[in-house]
Amino acid sequence: MKTLSLCLLLLLSASAQATVYKYVDKDGNVTFTNVPIRGAQPIRLNPLSSYPSQHKNSGNSSGGAAPAKPSSSFPSVDPGTQKQRDSGRRKILEQELANEQKALADAQKALTDGKATRNGDETRNYQKYLDRVQKLQDEVTDRQKNVEALRRELGQN
Fold this sequence. Notes:
Elements: H1 2-14, E1 20-24, E2 30-33, E3 41-43, H2 79-116, H3 126-154
Antiparallel strand pairs: 1-2, 1-3
Helix pairs in contact: 2-3
């Protein structure tokens, strides 16, 4: 039943303008398709809802859109409070960066140590050694990406 619902949903989303047919075979299995099959019944579906964009172009002379005005229901804070929040967020990001840099150093050390030694049956099975070293390399790569992302977030490119 879940598969049938999923198939129907996929058909509806993929072919919103196409005709959908419902076919019931001799065993009672129901098939929904956009391809007409002998004995299949076309199904009339209501059109999908769509909503217009909330962006409205103002009639200013520069031709660009006017700056968005905050909604009256959107809470605003004074600049001092916002600066305090930004400072707190920055401290959190800096701490995360320090943690990731330490984890990167640990991962690089583990990779160096892992490349230098072969464990147990890795002397006979070189692929096991390569697989283990690749996992260590992947860990280093992940940590490097995390450090880069945190630096970008902090504006430290």
